[in-house]
Amino acid sequence: MKKYNTKTIPRATAKRLPLYLRNLTILDSKGIARIKSKELSEITQVPPATIRRDFSYLGELGRSGYGYEVAFLIKVFSEILDSNEENKIAIVGFGNLGKALANNNFRRNQNLMITCVFDNDPAIIGQTIAGFYVYSMDDFKQVIQEKNVKTAISTVPSEYAQEAIDIVVNSEITAILNFAPDRVEVPANISIRYIDLTTELLTLLFFDRNYKKTSLAVTS
């Protein structure tokens, strides 16, 4: 497989690659071998011209009038997005959402591993829950350095998110996925992404009301 220079891919394009890969994988599971940009646009709600431009940064992935081989695109995007390195992850906040994430433990990618979980609730600190020992946030820096963790997922509610993120940042974590929708302040060297479940649900309902279904329609 060709090696791709990911540093030349624009940030906006990079954000869409997981969306493409997720939908292409579903299409492949349905036995769809080839797709055109217009058809992929109907699924992802990304304009066809944007899809073609995104793909062009990676070379010649398809042919005019023919479209794209689904299996080939999956290989390309998988290579770009997947690292051969083991990525150890800490979960901050071990409530219902934290437990759900830990139980999933990224089964589709063996290089993503929930290594440790943290909370500030005395009732669960020191307990083993769902197979995970719950550490105190007071021990966060020591534990993640011992376990060489560089990524954290925060499920802490917005009103406490900044305090939790401050602890995470001060422990040499460089990548954070935050499930609290409100923005927090982090240093420029920290990569942080936000997931707002309410916004995602409203977007889903909007598309469900306003866009016609097609025979290729899948969850985006």
From TrEMBL:
Q: Which residues bind NAD(+)?
A: G93, F94, G95, N96, L97, G98
Biological process per Gene Ontology, one example term: response to redox state
Query: Recorded GO terms, molecular function?
Result: DNA binding; DNA-binding transcription factor activity
Per its UniProt record, what SUPFAM superfamilies does this chain match? NAD(P)-binding Rossmann-fold domains, Winged helix' DNA-binding domain
**Keywords annotated in UniProt:** Cytoplasm, DNA-binding, NAD, Repressor, Transcription, Transcription regulation
What subcellular compartments does it reside in?
Cytoplasm
> What Pfam families would the database entry show?
CoA_binding, Put_DNA-bind_N
InterPro entries assigned: CoA-bd (IPR003781), NAD(P)-bd_dom_sf (IPR036291), Rex_bacilli-type (IPR058203), Rex_DNA-bd_C_dom (IPR009718), Tscrpt_rep_Rex (IPR022876), WH-like_DNA-bd_sf (IPR036388), WH_DNA-bd_sf (IPR036390)
The superkingdom of the source organism is Bacteria
Cellular-component GO terms for this entry: cytoplasm
Query: Which stretches hold the DNA-binding feature?
Result: 19-58
- The record places domain CoA-binding at 82-183
Known role: Modulates transcription in response to changes in cellular NADH/NAD(+) redox state.
Q: Which family does it belong to?
A: Belongs to the transcriptional regulatory Rex family.
What is said about its interaction partners and assembly?
Homodimer.
- PANTHER family attached here? REDOX-SENSING TRANSCRIPTIONAL REPRESSOR REX, REDOX-SENSING TRANSCRIPTIONAL REPRESSOR REX 1
Q: What is this protein called?
A: Redox-sensing transcriptional repressor Rex
Species the sequence originates in: Tetragenococcus osmophilus
Gene this chain is encoded by: rex_1
